[in-house]
Specification:
The protein is of the alpha/beta class and 246 residues long. The protein is 38% helix and 17% strand. Helix 9 crosses helix 11 (229-245). The structure holds 6-chloroguanine. Residues 85-87, 89, 129-132, 134-136, 138-139, 142 line the site of 6-chloroguanine.
Length: 246
């Protein structure tokens, strides 16, 4: 995969792209990531990239020329997904991460403080994404979130290929609780079933805990999930247990 990031603050990406899994993914050649300062594509002598809004009002607006020119200088841009980051975009999700992980080329457009000229939205971007219902000072942090979640899905990036498949959300459920040694810490014991070596019972316990956690914390996720008969039985048990606690 190739990823190009258009930003006025390329230094914001240094720590994130040069650490941990994103660093390893680039070293392994699973992804090539470049930042491009679109100020370099401004043609006027003060290198301005923004201007006052037509019709008046507060704030500044990113001009179309430098952003169009910077994108058009990227080889193969016309076959890429060109993703604008704004709070007005479609809400990013694990499903969207899985969709983007199948692409060959992603281009991210990060604004900072200010809005984009609408012609960038209408005639350059192919996608517009938001990472949630809150306002950030710019698209950079959102681009980092999206890039992190997409790159970890690329083949060969996670050491243990299974670990992306059991993630929260990819199964439609939140993850079950995990424990490691010691068996007892400050008097708090690991659930006995996990020490039993009884794989069938452990699987059932984990499924039940994942269902319980999802029901209590994110019931909205259950509305979109279809259940096996075992899961239906477990949900019934959970609901009875909760009723009995009242
Ligand atoms: Cl993509 N950009 C900005 N500026 N704020 C956001 C966002 C994006 N997603 C959530 N808040």
């Amino acid at each position: 995969m190739k990823i190009d990031i258009l930003t006025l603050f390329p230094e914001m990406f240094d720590g994130v792209l040069q650490s941990s899994i994103l660093k390893k993914a680039q070293e392994k050649g699973a992804v090539v990531i470049s930042t491009i300062n679109f100020r370099d594509y401004s043609t006027n002598k003060h290198k301005t990239v923004d201007d006052y809004p037509y019709g008046g009002g507060h704030g500044m607006v990113l001009k179309p020329e430098p952003i169009f020119s910077a994108v058009e200088a990227i080889p193969g841009y016309d076959k890429a997904r060109i993703i604008m980051l704004t709070p007005q975009g479609e809400r990013f999700s694990q499903k969207k991460a899985e969709e983007l992980s199948k692409e060959k080329h992603l281009i991210f457009l990060c604004g900072h403080y200010e809005g984009f000229d609408e012609r960038i939205r209408d005639h350059l971007a192919t996608d517009e994404l938001s990472i949630g219902d809150y306002v950030l000072t710019g698209g950079e942090l959102a681009a980092m979130v999206i890039i992190d979640s997409v790159v970890r899905l690329l083949p060969g990036v996670l050491g243990n290929e299974g670990s992306a498949k059991t993630d929260s959300f990819s199964t439609g459920l939140l993850e079950y609780p995990q424990y490691t040694r010691p068996e007892e810490f400050r008097g708090y014991r690991v659930p006995e079933v996990l020490l039993s070596g009884h794989h069938r019972k452990i699987e059932r316990w984990r499924k039940k805990e994942a269902l319980k956690r999802t029901l209590l914390r994110r019931p909205d996720l259950l509305a979109e999930t279809s259940f096996t008969q075992e899961e239906k039985d477990l949900l019934e048990e959970i609901i009875k247990e909760i009723e009995n606690q009242k």
